[in-house]
Amino acid sequence: MNISDYKSESSRTFLNRTEGIDARTTDLLHCVIGLGTESGEMLDQFKRHIYYGKPLDVVNVKEELGDVMWYLMNLCRLMNLDLEEIMQMNIDKLKARYPDKFTAENALNRDTTAERIILEGNDAK
Questions:
Q1: Is-contact 45 68, C-beta < 8 A?
Q2: Contact at 8 Å (CB) between 35 and 68?
Q3: For the chain, what are the domain ranges?
């Protein structure tokens, strides 16, 4: 197969979503893409430090974390999600998964049903 044929064949399964996309969907996508982009920039900072021996630029890490927070907060705002509730839900899930502390055994043998109940807010507190 040559590149031209591949280009033609691969386009057959590409979902072009330019029609019918509203402003809210575009805004949500902006936030999700931004989270990935800023996380990737921070990941690159650590790659350069760990694999290339460059000093870790903590100022840049803080900048990227700030950018991640910006996208995260805007995603929460657009979806009407409470970040404090999400933070508590995450801790509750981790307590169920790791009752005492992290163990590889608990990481590999999760009770996903119990975790889902916590994530859905159906746990009896």
A1: no
A2: yes
A3: 19-81, 82-125
Residue 46, both tokens: 């650590």
Per-residue pLDDT tens digits for 33-71: 999 999 999 999 999 999 999 999 999 999 999 999 999
Is residue 26 a contact partner of residue 17, using CB atoms and an 8 Å limit?
A: no
Nearest to 45 by CA among 34, 55, 37, 32: 55
pTM of the model: 0.79
**pLDDT tens digits for 16-32?**
776 778 889 999 999 99
Query: Which residue in 41, 106, 108 sits closest to 71, CA to CA?
Result: 41
- Whole-angstrom Cα distance, residue 124 to residue 117? 9
Most distant CA atoms of the chain, gap in Å: 61
